[in-house]
């Protein structure tokens, strides 16, 4: 096999096209598989609104122990509606594609890493592997936290919020799925913040001392980011902003620790 540095631009583009084709095929196959289990995936997402969901059960038990009924969330099942002729079919397709991306993600990352790896030095290759592992772990922790904690709280707040008793909430399944997946993915991306802080310092774009001094500015930026990536309500913004702020602090602490160790 020819060395990567000896390849022409056309050969690089040909190899990149092959990588993109592999990713597309992997996502397509994953989507077909998930499509066959569309109802199971739908139930997996909608159960965050069920009284039997683990977070809802625990909070309702805590509400009884503390004699604070406001802590109990999603105590009544939500009824969903569909108002579009092709609504359920398009929802099935969207769920299949979303699931296909998630299922094929490890393979896609491996393909991308295999494409980039030959161009890296040994030291850079080791750092890249650690970065990919840390990124995957943080993303997994983030979506788990979003699914178990943020999503049910956000669903309860939005589903039962009323500006007037004369207005009846009729929740479409499409809006529910969009809100939950948006919230969960936002938390997955948000949990990458420690890595962002670390590399900003490593590349000398931003120093740790600067990050410490600019904590108030960072707090405002995090609130703004939370407002963009969450449903349009203050409650959801706050419950997303708090973990992001803690992750910002974790990034500073981890960077300081690695810097002092080096």
List keywords for this structure.
mainly alpha, globular, 10 helices, 2% strand, 262 residues
Spell out the blueprint of helices and strands:
Elements: H1 9-36, H2 38-46, H3 54-65, E1 80-81, H4 87-116, H5 122-160, E2 171-172, H6 173-190, H7 193-202, H8 208-213, H9 215-229, H10 234-261
Parallel strand pairs: 1-2
Summarize the structure.
By secondary structure, the chain is mainly alpha-helical.
- Strand share of the residues? under 5%
Q: N-to-C SSE series?
A: HHHEHHEHHHHH
> What is the helix fraction of residues, given as a range?
over 70%
Radius of gyration: 22 Å
Q: For the residues shown, what is the average pLDDT?
A: 82
Main structural class: mainly alpha
Describe this protein's structure.
The protein has 262 residues and is mostly helical. It has a domain at 4-157. It has ten helices and two strands. It has helices at residues 9-36, 38-46, 54-65, 87-116, 122-160, 173-190, 193-202, 208-213, 215-229, 234-261; strands at residues 80-81, 171-172. Strands 1-2 form a two-stranded parallel sheet. Helix 1 packs antiparallel against helix 4 (87-116), helix 5 (122-160) packs antiparallel against helix 6 and helix 9 (215-229) crosses helix 10 (234-261). The mean pLDDT is 82.
């Amino acid at each position: 096999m020819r060395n990567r540095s000896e390849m022409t631009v056309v050969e690089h583009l040909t190899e990149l096209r092959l990588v993109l084709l592999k990713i597309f095929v992997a996502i397509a196959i994953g989507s077909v598989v998930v499509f066959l289990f569309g109802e199971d995936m739908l139930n997996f997402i909608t159960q965050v609104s069920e009284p039997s969901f683990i977070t809802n059960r625990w909070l309702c038990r805590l509400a009884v122990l503390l004699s604070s009924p406001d802590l109990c969330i999603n105590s009544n099942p939500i009824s969903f509606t569909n108002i579009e002729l092709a609504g359920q079919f398009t929802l099935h397709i969207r769920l299949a594609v979303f699931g296909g991306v998630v299922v094929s993600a490890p393979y896609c990352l491996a393909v991308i890493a295999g494409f980039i790896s030959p161009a890296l030095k040994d030291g850079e290759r080791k750092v890249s592997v650690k970065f990919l592992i840390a990124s995957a772990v943080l993303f997994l922790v983030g979506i788990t936290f979003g699914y178990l904690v943020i999503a049910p709280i956000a669903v309860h707040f939005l589903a039962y919020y009323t500006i007037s008793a004369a207005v009846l909430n009729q929740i479409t399944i499409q809006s529910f799925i969009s809100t939950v997946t948006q919230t969960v993915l936002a938390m997955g991306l948000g949990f990458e913040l420690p890595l962002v802080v670390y590399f900003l310092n490593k590349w000398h774009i931003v120093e740790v001392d600067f990050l410490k001094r600019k904590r108030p500015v960072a707090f405002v930026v995090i609130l703004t980011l939370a407002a963009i990536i969450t449903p349009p309500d203050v409650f959801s913004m706050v419950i997303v902003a708090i973990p992001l702020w803690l992750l910002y602090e974790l990034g500073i602490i981890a960077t300081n620790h690695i810097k002092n160790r080096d």
